[in-house]
Amino acid sequence: MMRSWLGGLTLLLAITVTASVTAQRQDVTLWVTLGDSDQLVEVDAYTFTEIRRITTDPKPHGLAASADGSKIYIGSDRTGNFQVIDARSGKVTAQIPLGKDPNQMTLTRDGRFAYMPMRGENAVAIVEFDPLRLVKKIAMNEGPHDAYTSADGSRVYVGAQYGNAIAVFDAAKQALLHHIPTSDGVRPLEPTENGKIIYTALSNLIGFVMVDPDSRSVTRRVELAQLPEGVPKPYLNTYTHALQLVKNDTELWVTDCVNDLVRIVSTRDLKEIAQIRVGKFPHWFTVRPDGEAVRQPVGLARGGRHRHRDSESAGEHPVRTRHRAEADPRCAESPVIDVDSRHQQVLPADHFRPAPTGHRGA
Q1: What residues does each domain of the chain span?
Q2: Confidence bin at 290 (pLDDT 50/70/90)
């Protein structure tokens, strides 16, 4: 039986590890959206070579996979469509219009529904897969950004990038329960397996806050560094973007978009135990099922107020811009950094070998 693994996903580069329908090592493949193009890329998760490209609607954003790996789901920033892709044939087999600016989705544990933040509408769209249809939209605080399903499947959490809150939904009742207020805009989240903590990235913070979903409150703020004197604020006040729990939730990996680092924090005492320099403006994570490689897209949005640094581990191509930002067209060939999670070091940059420019698959 095929299994599916999902990692961090959004905007210009969304990464998912999911079951392959071809004979891959351990039946694992990596899916990457190139958000300033119309391409969904399949990559071998062990050799890091590009397998094929699939043409989608322009500006694919949210990304998810069915539990058996047979279907890939995406949303389009440009058209507002929700698309279903057959992973074997590489064809778009169905689509429905959702609305303005769909963001990063999450699936319910039974695999029947997707919760899709609609940042252009301040709402969350609930999509049923069989038959494919829009069930309803639920209003929430401003700037719905990323969605996450709790480990037990009972809750869906959606960050409000401009509304300073986490929206909490009852997955079974398909209803908004409440908002948990935060001190600044909510960026990506990382709920723990036991459901007791939601690690939360905020605008203007290199670090994270810890949210208790039961008491509906922020219980602790962890600031790992401050903006250096004389350095302008990074693009869209994105000090930290992605968070990733690894090693049975004993480590939290944190992107530092100001200093071009991944910072590793022990969740036992919240002390920083290591740093990895990965390249410009690091964003999303995803972890390979064997836990030995963590994938990290890096880049720089053109026109963003980000301090330029020489990349030690990746090329110069940008990876991420906001939906209305001007994006450098080179981002269609953005680098993906692979990190050895055991030895906490960047793997050689040539591990990811994209196909020649202009290559197109199914």
Answers
A1: 5-351
A2: confident
Would you state the torsion angle of the CA atoms of residues 203, 206, 211, 216, taken in this order, to the nearest 10 degrees? -30
Find tokens 């009852």 and name the residue.
170
Q: What SS3 class is residue 40?
A: strand
| Phi–psi pair at 25, nearest 5 degrees | -60, 125
Q: Around 298, how many Cα atoms within 13 Å sit in the side-chain half-sphere?
A: 33
Residues 300/341, Cβ–Cβ less than 8 Å:
no
Q: Which residues contact 109 (CB under 8 A, 6 or more apart)?
A: 149, 152, 153, 171
pLDDT at residue 348, as a whole number:
52
Q: H or E element: which one contains 340? A: strand 336-340
In this prediction the pTM is 0.81
The tens digit of pLDDT for each residue in 138-192 reads 999 999 999 999 999 999 999 999 999 999 999 999 999 999 999 999 999 999 9
Task: Please tell me the distance from the alpha carbon of residue 222 to that of residue 19, in angstroms, as a whole number.
Answer: 36
CATH 2.10.25.10 for domain 5-351: no
In whole angstroms, give the CA distance from residue 177 to residue 353: 45
- 87-126 residue pLDDT tens: 999 999 999 999 999 999 999 999 999 999 999 999 999 9
